[in-house]
């Protein structure tokens, strides 16, 4: 499909701002990440989800990160639970409220936290909540691919170049990933974003906009944006009509990744035009509304 076809399929899924929706209906997103060293990543993912149009974002982090993340923005609901002894018991009731979960931004690689997140992934699978895995979440999956074998709900991996190479080496290329779970889709980030959706015609490449600046936080903005778009496209999947026979969940996944890729690349280009070499992810956040309006209208 070409770019215009993607936009035409996507637009009906964007909730209208006509006053007919209640709080939470446009998206309740969970971000699992945030550690002593990394507090910015979950903030960027959460703010991107909100700025795209989600109503609520919950961040599940370790205790040392909580106060810092709270200080960044009062918009984020922060739960310092990942390093508690009864973490899964504490987190589990919140999962019922969430439409999409992102695992990885600022997660770190503490083995104890990884054990908790591994159990959490199994619980998310049981509850069939759509899942996006990024950053150190991908490191965990590379170490233990079996964690995502039984997923039946949409699951999106968003590796950069190094993460993709590490994952491919572990799984013997994309074929190994397909054999692991046919429901897994992959958005490979780079100069050109590439989306892989196995055995379908939904794969695509996106090299529009963007810039040569590779500051930290851009991938977190992308994962948070995907989360909101994914909720919208899944909720509206029966309204999305495509001439070819295709699984509607996979179509929703493809559309959400394309929408977020286009949005963040446009934000990147706009911020870079003003800030140049000094551009930061914080600058990109300020252009989400402008880029969204330019691409998708109000």
TrEMBL record:
PROSITE patterns per UniProt: YJEF_C_1 (PS01049), YJEF_C_3 (PS51383)
Domain YjeF C-terminal: 6-295
Record EC number: 4.2.1.93
Positions of ATP binding: 210-219
KW Nucleotide-binding (keyword) present: yes
One GO BP annotation of this record: nicotinamide nucleotide metabolic process
Binding residues for (6S)-NADPHX: 106, 160-166, 220
Alphabetic keyword roster: ATP-binding, Lyase, NAD, NADP, Nucleotide-binding, Phosphoprotein
One matching Pfam family: Carb_kinase
Signal sequence interval, chain numbering: none
Requisite cofactors: Mg(2+)
Entry's Gene Ontology molecular function annotations: ATP binding; ATP-dependent NAD(P)H-hydrate dehydratase activity
Catalytic activity line of the entry: (6S)-NADPHX + ATP = ADP + phosphate + NADPH + H(+); (6S)-NADHX + ATP = ADP + phosphate + NADH + H(+)
InterPro entries for this protein: Carbohydrate_kinase_pred_CS, CARKD, Ribokinase-like
Keyword Cell membrane: no
Sequence similarity: Belongs to the NnrD/CARKD family.
Function: Catalyzes the dehydration of the S-form of NAD(P)HX at the expense of ATP, which is converted to ADP. Together with NAD(P)HX epimerase, which catalyzes the epimerization of the S- and R-forms, the enzyme allows the repair of both epimers of NAD(P)HX, a damaged form of NAD(P)H that is a result of enzymatic or heat-dependent hydration.
Name assigned to this protein: ATP-dependent (S)-NAD(P)H-hydrate dehydratase
Organism (species): Vanessa tameamea (Kamehameha butterfly)
């Amino acid at each position: 499909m070409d770019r215009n076809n993607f936009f035409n399929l996507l637009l009906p899924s964007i909730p209208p701002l006509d006053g007919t929706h209640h709080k939470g209906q446009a998206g309740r997103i969970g971000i699992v990440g945030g550690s002593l060293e990394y507090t910015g990543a979950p903030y960027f993912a959460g703010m991107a989800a909100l700025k795209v149009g989600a109503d609520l974002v919950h961040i599940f982090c370790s205790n040392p990160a909580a106060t810092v993340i709270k200080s960044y923005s009062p918009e984020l609901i922060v739960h310092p639970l990942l390093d508690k002894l009864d973490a899964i018991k504490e987190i589990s009731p919140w999962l019922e409220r969430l439409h999409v979960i992102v695992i990885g931004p600022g997660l770190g690689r503490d083995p104890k936290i990884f054990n908790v997140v591994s159990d959490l992934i199994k619980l998310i699978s049981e509850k069939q909540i759509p899942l996006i895995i990024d950053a150190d979440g991908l490191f965990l999956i590379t170490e233990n691919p079996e964690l995502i074998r039984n997923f039946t709900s949409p699951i999106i991996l968003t590796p950069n170049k190094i993460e993709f190479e590490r994952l491919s080496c572990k799984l013997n290329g994309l074929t190994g990933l397909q054999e692991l779970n046919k429901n897994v889709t992959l958005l490979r980030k780079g100069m050109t974003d590439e989306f892989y959706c196995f055995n379908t015609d939904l794969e695509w490449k996106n090299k529009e906009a963007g810039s040569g600046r590779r500051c930290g936080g851009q991938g977190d903005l992308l994962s948070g944006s995907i989360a909101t778009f994914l909720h919208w496209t899944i909720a509206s999947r029966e309204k999305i009509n495509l001439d070819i026979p295709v699984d509607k969940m996979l179509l929703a996944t493809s559309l959400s990744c394309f929408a977020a890729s286009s949005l963040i690349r446009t934000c990147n280009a706009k911020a870079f035009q003003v800030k140049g070499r000094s551009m930061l992810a914080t600058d990109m956040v300020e252009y989400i509304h402008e880029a969204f309006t330019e691409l998708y209208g109000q």
